[in-house]
Design a protein that fits this description.
Blueprint lengths: L1 H18 L26 E9 L2 E11 L6 E2 L5 E2 L2 E8 L5 E7 L10 H6 L1 E11 L2 E9 L8 E8 L5 E5 L13 H11 L1
Antiparallel strand pairs: 1-2, 2-5, 3-4, 5-6, 7-8, 8-9, 9-10
Amino acid sequence: MKYFAIVLSVSICFLAACKEEKKSTDIITQKPMVVKKTEPVTMEAINNAEAVKWLGKTYTVEIHRYSDKELPKTRDEYGVEYFDNHIEVKVLRPDGTEFFGRVFNKQSFHEYLDEATIKDGAMLAFRFTEVKNDCLVFVASVGSPDAMSDDYIPLIVTISRMGEINIKRDNCIDEIPGAEESAEERDTDYDESF
């Protein structure tokens, strides 16, 4: 029994010694979080060339979309910033010479846009649709830079055989070939066709 009491005493002393906390002079702090400012989103560059039968000959319509970091930034409905775009449109004669060439941006359509689109919208797309009454007919859109958004203003742009441009806001979007697509299909279609 004496032996048991000694073992018990030694065990209690050992456990008490193990429980003693070691004191440290180290100071532990948390590293401050640095919030990185993200660069505005750049929309995908698009390049498209399409052969078009017009005025009895085959012309080539080239459309190029590219971001321009010099333009004022745009933003989507969530406040995410985007670089705005320029869209260059060229119509080349059968011999390769340029019949028409112009660079469009959001300001090109200023008088057809509402205030919110002027402030935060981006130049989204430009696409050839058909030949009508000796004119080349295109659809263009300016709106939310978010590819998942269906918030945009559709426009019809015609180029006459003399190279004159006519722009109007499209109030009958269902009448334009391919316009019945959803916003996701629209963005996919533009990306594939450019």
